[in-house]
Amino acid sequence: MARQVPVEAVFEALGHVKYPGFTTDILALGIVEEVKPRPDGGFIVVLRQATERDDVMQRLAANVHQALTADLGVSEVELQVRRVEAELGEKTGRARLAGTKYVVAVASGKGGVGKSTVAANLAVALAQMGLKVGLLDADIYGPSMALMFGTGDERPKAGGPQNLYPIERCGVNLMSMGFFLDDRAPVIWRGPMVMGAIRQFLKDTLWGTQDFLIVDLPPGTGDAQLTLAQQVALDGGIVVTTPQDVSVLDAGRAAKMLRQVHCPILGIVENMSYFVCPDCGERDEIFGRSGADRMAAEEGTGVLARIPIYPEICESGDKGLPITFTQPRHPASQVYAELARKVLAMMPEDG
Ligand code: ADP
To answer: Mean pLDDT across the chain, nearest whole number?
Structure first.
């Protein structure tokens, strides 16, 4: 008769199994749905299907098997994989956010490259084209939309026991973790909380009917991106980088991450590409040339936009209104508008 391993020990062992390619374990990522003991001393483990890639799920299954049988001594392990239900509305076999036509993620390999500034100005530029646009600040480690849109002390209004209305600014519907925090409060989120927060923000926000939801992802290639891909089909991703080598390298990782979660890469936005001398009008490429071109070529994509360094971009951000809103005729705003047109043109027609 096989020894009955306590269910707590099974959970503990599962807490040491990493999701393939990640440093986070499958418990923290919420991939383990259920663990049920069987009368014969074995266990049924129910996993959420976190990816459509069979090889990843197989690797995950093998790791779970190994951890429970070989390492823990469970006699029999029966794995069941539960597809993530498309409770958000089904379309072409992938979960869609009901009422939202296109979901576009803005990513970067590291912080400080201007990702949130691009996301904010892209959202405003799309809204200026007459589209209905939402902006989800999923950068829960360092949410900045509350500052960038100057929402001050305003808090999202409740629209029912579970639901919140986004806050509207500059024609864009905003939802951000920053609405629930003091400006400077550090956010230390663990895996499951990250998942919970994003899931909640996506589903419980009363976005209404909208053409675009722009998602400002946290920098890097961690849990939040994975969660998003589990929750909603991304129609496209933009990777923001600066021309410096190290940033471009990090951006390459962000591009691979998007690909891993089946998000088509729309292209690269090279931010802080050059500085235009206010006196002589000459371009000064202070961070070097063509890093983004090289990366785009390596990733099989293109450069969607090159945004120069303009002190006005930074000043508007600090004042709490994006430059596309305050100075729509500024050359920087024109670049964002061109980016918005390109993004719209790249969306699938059946969206
Ligand atoms: P990230 O989201 O990548 O961390 P942010 O969007 O917060 O970066 O930008 C970092 C800082 O750089 C902000 O102060 C922002 O105003 C400034 N900034 C971003 N893009 C530009 C630009 N093209 N020219 C001048 N300042 C910029």
So the answer is: 83
Question: Which residue owns the Cα nearest ligand 1 atom 17?
Answer: 314
For tokens 């806050």, the residue is 167
CATH class of segment(s) 7-82: alpha beta
The HSE-up count of residue 52 (CA atoms within 13 Å, CB side) is: 14
Ligand 1: atom nearest CA of 316 is: 16
Q: Is 321 in the pocket of ligand 1 (CB under 6 A)?
A: no
Ligand 1 centroid – CA 317 distance (Å): 8
CA distance 255 to 295: 10
In the block, residue with structure tokens 């675009």: 212
Report whether 310 contacts 333 (CB < 8 A). Answer: no
The C-alpha atoms of residue 59 and residue 258 are separated, in whole angstroms, by 20
Q: Which atom of ligand 1 is nearest to the CA of 308?
A: 23
Does residue 313 sit in helix, strand or coil?
helix
The residue extents of the domains of the chain are 7-82, 100-345
Cβ–ligand 1 distance for 144 under 6 Å, the answer yes
DSSP code for 218: P
Determine if ligand 1 sits within 6 Å of the CB of residue 115. Answer: yes
CA angle 107, 108, 113 (to 5 degrees): 125
Q: Which fold has domain 100-345?
A: Rossmann fold (3.40.50)
Q: What is the pLDDT of residue 52?
A: 59
Q: Which of 268-277, 317-326, 329-338 has the lowest mean pLDDT?
A: 268-277
Measured CA to CA, the distance from residue 279 to residue 283 in angstroms comes to 11
**Residue 334: HSE in the Cβ half-sphere, 13 Å Cα cutoff:** 4
Our mutation pick for probing the ligand 1 site, out of 117, 140, 270, counting the most ligand atoms within 8 A of Cβ, is 117
Model confidence pTM above 0.90 = no
Whether the CB of 336 sits within 6 Å of ligand 1: no
CA-closest candidate to residue 305, choices 279, 332, 345: 332
